[in-house]
Specification:
Structural class: mainly beta
CATH topology: Metal Binding Protein, Guanine Nucleotide Exchange Factor, Chain A
CATH class: Mainly Beta
Number of helices: 0
Helix content: under 10%
Radius of gyration: 16 Å
Shape: globular
Strand content: over 45%
Length: 152
């Protein structure tokens, strides 16, 4: 039986949670999964920012809780969601496994993300829509790689 180790953010592993301040959207195969101007941005030691969506601003007709769980020593126990894409009454649904995750009861330093849903940009399309005059940003993975999309 293993004991879960808990760690607090600090200078060697900083974590911040702040309001994003602009629209962020998520699509799966072109279908809306989430859209919010009220996401929280979690920035953690060397990773790309992660956008956490309020549970009221995700498409629960598409998302289903999966059986997957994991543990983060800085945030706590995580659950996961699948995207289930149906095409009306035609054929079997397309399931994209574990497209996102959530912390129902995160540790105190990141308590603001409780119940919010974050998404893997390598499994779905996560797009930041900054305020007018700035390019949209499409995150392609959880490194710091991003693709700026300029609209003409």
């Amino acid at each position: 039986m293993s004991t879960k180790v808990r760690r607090d953010p600090g200078p060697d592993h900083p974590i911040t949670v702040t309001p994003t301040g602009h629209l962020v959207t998520v699509t799966a195969h072109g279908r809306p999964v989430a859209s919010s101007e009220h996401t929280l941005t979690l920035e953690e030691a060397g990773y790309a920012p992660v956008y956490y969506f309020p549970p009221t601003e995700v498409n629960w007709e598409v998302l289903r809780e999966s059986d997957t769980t994991s543990y983060c020593p800085y945030k706590g126990d995580a659950g996961y969601v699948n995207a289930v894409l149906t095409d009306g009454d035609h054929g079997d649904p397309t399931v994209i496994g574990d497209v996102g995750w959530f912390y129902a009861q995160p540790y105190e330093p990141v308590a603001a993300i409780a119940g919010h849903i974050a998404f893997y940009p390598e499994r779905v399309t996560v797009t930041e829509h900054p305020h007018a005059g700035r390019a949209d940003v499409v995150w392609t993975d959880r490194s710091k790689e991003r693709l700026d999309v300029h609209h003409g």
